[in-house]
Amino acid sequence: LEVIASVEPRIAEATRQELADQRGSLKLIASENYASPAVLMTMGTWFSDKYAEGTVGHRFYAGCQNVDTVESLAAEHARELFGAPYAYVQPHSGIDANLVAFWSILANRVESPYLEKLQAKNVNELTEADWESLRHELGNQRLLGMSLDAGGHLTHGFRPNISGKMFHQQQYGTDPETGLLDYDAVAAKAREFKPLVLVAGYSAYPRRVNFAKMREIADEVGAVLMVDMAHFAGLVAGKVFTGEEDPVPFAHLTTTTTHKSLRGPRGGMVLAQEEFAADVDRGCPMVLGGPLSHVMAAKAVAFAEARTTEFQDYAQRIADNAKSLAEGFLSRGANLVTGGTDNHLVLLDVSSFGLTGRQAESALLDAGVVTNRNSVPADPNGAWYTSGIRLGTPALTTRGFGHDEFDTVADLIVDVLSNTEAGTTKAGGPSKASYVVADGVAERVTARSAEM
Ligand code: PLP
User: In 222-291, which ranges are E strands?
Assistant: First the structure.
């Protein structure tokens, strides 16, 4: 930090403060974690300076021999860790990984003279008719994914996202009674809509998915099954999700981030069956620019960590702790979407406290509990205010929290929410944003969490 401070002291100070904040609060954001010192240090090296567009052994730049070592190792570790025939470790983030997967599916499955010429590297021969074919064929494909309010991600066909614009899209939700995925309803929708791409995976669904069933649905309608395991990759790597709950053997393509439950550097990755490998390999330059070599190196380090028995134990504790957190809420009378959890996250419906998700998120933050507001299925408050709070256990499990600590976390959260009231607007009506926490509650909760 001293080196940074000698150039831009405010950045050094913000960095110091970030460490203090992350240590001094309860980090319950389901997509966050604490990467190991080895992972963090690997990101701060000279690989950051190196350009390496292309693939291993086929770069558009000279002098990439060490990047080749790094990328090969990261891919090899990923293949072994997840039992995947092919791994592409270049995506800079989860969204990039999904874009690479979408384009490789289009390139692999859509018949168009443009794509044939592109594949044959005859881009210069493209005629106006080829471009017309491209616009028509690529712009006419269908994608079916899980809706945002049921727990899907923006990139699974949400209209405002590019995935909802580059594809004709439809969304599947969850059963309105149970909040659970209804495979028969997904199958019925797939039969009717006949998508090219069926996307499974989620950001805020607190249950496990049967990927064998999702593959059956995809096969029945001739779709490609793409699973986005960004949230639960750590549980797959740690062998908590096995058999039909492990997406890798069932999906044609599995995408992920590397920084959530997997506890690596910020980044993305695509795992693929052989038939898609060559198309995914063209992620750069089709979708991506130069890979972040320092981050690929850190991915290799994180995958090496994730293949240990210590990591398997960690992954099991993530799931056990989520159950403890859920039980802590239920025993204190709170409502959970689907009535519980069997993965790494809990979705708390805060409407019974008379609050919106936004009010709950802010009140909790005042007490040092860092969460994010999240829609619940058919949310009456929409995606901005929401009615839920999403809570994940990966980060605090890294800090060593177990059953008792997570029971206390549930107690602290219920303490804050039951002592918070919705505020009023300037016109005197009920506000969805402002809130009032009773005196002394934030201090009490902060003091209790400091002891943990
Ligand atoms: N896919 C899922 C399921 C996610 O939850 C997220 C991020 O929250 C992403 C993709 C996007 O990841 P990134 O923020 O690295 O682009």
Answer: 224-228, 253-257, 268-272
